[in-house]
Amino acid sequence: MDLRFRKGDILAIAAVLALAAAVFALFLPSRSTDGAVVEIYRNGERLHAFSLNVDRQFTIDGDYTNVVTISGGKVAITESTCPGGDCVGCGWASSAGRSIVCLPNGVEIRIVGAEGEVDFIVG
Amino acid sequence: MKAKEITLCAVLTALALALSYTEQFIPLQLAIPLPGIKLGLANIVTLAALYLLRTKYAFWILLARCFFGSVFGGGITALCFSLLGGCLALGVMALAKKLPFLSIYGVSILGAAAHNVGQILAAMGLMHSIYIGAYLPYLLIVAVFTGLLTGAACAGVLRVLPDAYISLPAEMRR
What we know:
A: four-stranded antiparallel β-sheet, 20% helix, B: Arp2/3 complex 21 kDa subunit ARPC3
């Protein structure tokens, strides 16, 4: 049984960080903020698409209720009736490729860059 | 299963459940505002079981922990997450343990990382979205630290445990 930190463990750390870097690079193309669009999904179905640059506030009703605020080029779930409230704890997201998730409500708020596949923009 | 096997697995399952319950009172999310961030204290039990017992017992303890964890709170969604994350972590740790250059710390870190990968996969399936994968790099970086922490905790337990462990039935020992 090996209970002491060994030099070989650094390889494990390096492997995990390399995987992190690889996944980060994979999602890099979707990060750009010009003309970014906020897409709201519930259970995989898109409900709305709003411009990230127009301030607004709205609610998403489901098993629970999320209050979503878009303000100053950032988006957040600012209030939620879900247990835990992790989605509110996530805070504000502003860069394309980021998403805010409320699992209890099945909601995903996704920021997509200008070249994302957008059918329509409301507002 | 014999009485001694059932008893030991039950005690370790209860310990894992107690640890994951305790964990929600540690406000790690205030420091790192990412969904699903936690210390993974229950992994200490999986790790200890893997080092002390045959792999099949570690697996049964994990299954029981995931099942009862979802009964007591979390529901079916939490069950998907903890099963996929937990099984992937156990599988990776069982393999990593065979690598001669890794100590319990390296095994623990790889297990924590695998747990995050499993959870992100579950979230991708559940939300029908690959974009959640953009969270994985952050989770993995945190996993290095939480993996070191749980590894240290488990190493501490195993250092003082051997005397008690001698009384384990031979067929349970690895």
